[in-house]
């Protein structure tokens, strides 16, 4: 069993980006600039945004963090997005989800300029991805592709099961894995909470991407020997034995699944760090596109 080390792989990618940024600066070119908008004070969101800001510093990007109060109105947020769309200094920006209940997430994501949508969530970019056109890939699926590629995991002709149909991970992952690409050419099944014979389906899978948000859902008796498992989930589970009072759990029951796996991602330290690395990669791409 080999651990798919997202932490190490993401550091390799960040070092590659840092080198590219250094070369840009030496050539007198623009420094990539990523902005993040955080509405409210959700603990997990704050931690995630701060890690993105630190990642920007590490690779030599400029970064801007816009913090708005919990009671920000939809119109106020849309005005902020308009300003970011017009700001030529900013190459890409993200709106940290989830948003407070008074704000329509879909309306907000639609307002982002597709050319600055480094999260890859805008319908224009999702459509381009589905048509296999050059675009910003959603950061988490992009990170999974990169992880599989760097570990030389064969996907062509393989039976891939994606559990979860979210617009952020599940659906784009199923599209990307079926496309003609180095990490692709797979036969993909997209399963979800209404799939009746899920255990029967996962037991035949060569590769499983678990992204449904239910901690330790995938058990050892649901997979075959030699399976490749990518665990996208991360949930705080109450645990009084821990100093913090909780532990982080993925969608995969690591203890029962890992002995049967050829490759498996840990939680934490698997997919999470890759998501941030690919967000940086998309920002560098946005900066390069702006020049041309």
What's this model, at a glance?
The chain has helices at 6-26, 43-59, 74-86, 105-111, 123-130, 139-150, 170-178, 198-202, 254-257, 271-291, and strands at residues 2-3, 33-39, 62-68, 92-95, 159-163, 187-191, 207-210, 227-231, 235-238, 246-249, 261-264.
CATH class of the largest domain: Alpha Beta
How are the strands of the largest sheet arranged?
1-11-8-7-5-6
Question: What is the average per-residue confidence, as pLDDT, rounded to a whole number?
Answer: 95
CATH topology of the largest domain: Rossmann fold
CATH architecture of the largest domain: 3-Layer(aba) Sandwich
Q: Tally of extended strands?
A: 11
- Give the distance, in angstroms, between the N- and C-terminal Cα atoms: 45 Å
Main pleated-sheet profile:
6 strands, parallel
Helix-strand category: alpha/beta
Radius of gyration: 19 Å
How many structural domains are formed by the residues? 2
- N-to-C series of helices and strands: EHEHEHEHHHEHEHEEEEHEH
Keywords:
single chain, 292 residues, alpha/beta, Rossmann fold, 2 domains, six-stranded parallel sheet, three-stranded parallel sheet
Which secondary structure elements does this structure contain, and how are they paired or packed?
Blueprint: E1 2-3, H1 6-26, E2 33-39, H2 43-59, E3 62-68, H3 74-86, E4 92-95, H4 105-111, H5 123-130, H6 139-150, E5 159-163, H7 170-178, E6 187-191, H8 198-202, E7 207-210, E8 227-231, E9 235-238, E10 246-249, H9 254-257, E11 261-264, H10 271-291
Parallel strand pairs: 1-11, 2-3, 2-4, 5-6, 5-7, 7-8, 8-11
Antiparallel strand pairs: 9-10
Helix pairs in contact: 1-10, 6-10
């Amino acid at each position: 069993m080999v651990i798919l080390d997202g932490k190490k792989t993401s550091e390799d990618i960040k070092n590659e980006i840092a080198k590219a940024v250094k070369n840009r600066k030496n050539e007198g070119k623009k420094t990539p600039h990523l902005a993040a908008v955080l509405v409210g004070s959700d603990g997990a969101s704050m931690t995630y945004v701060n890690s993105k800001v630190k990642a920007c510093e590490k690779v030599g990007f400029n970064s801007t963090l816009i913090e708005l109060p919990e009671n920000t109105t939809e119109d106020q947020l849309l005005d902020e997005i308009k300003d970011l769309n017009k700001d030529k200094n900013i190459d890409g920006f993200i709106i940290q989800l989830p948003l407070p209940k008074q704000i329509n997430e879909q309306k907000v994501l639609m307002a982002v300029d597709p050319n600055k949508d480094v999260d890859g969530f805008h319908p224009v970019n999702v459509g381009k991805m589905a048509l296999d056109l050059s675009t910003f890939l959603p950061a988490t699926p992009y990170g999974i592709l990169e992880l599989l590629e760097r570990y030389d995991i064969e996907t062509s002709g393989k039976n891939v099961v994606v559990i979860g149909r979210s617009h952020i991970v599940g659906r784009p992952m199923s599209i990307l894995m079926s496309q003609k690409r180095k990490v692709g050419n797979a036969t993909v099944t997209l399963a979800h909470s209404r799939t009746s014979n899920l255990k029967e389906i996962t037991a035949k899978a060569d590769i499983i991407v678990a992204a449904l948000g239910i901690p330790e859902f995938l058990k050892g008796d649901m997979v075959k020997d030699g399976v490749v498992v990518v665990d996208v989930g991360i949930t705080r589970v109450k645990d009084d034995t821990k100093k913090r009072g909780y532990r982080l759990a993925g969608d995969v029951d690591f203890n029962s699944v890992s002995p049967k796996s050829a490759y498996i991602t840990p939680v934490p330290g698997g997919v999470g760090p890759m998501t941030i690395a690919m967000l940086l990669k998309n920002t560098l791409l946005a900066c390069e596109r702006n020049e041309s």
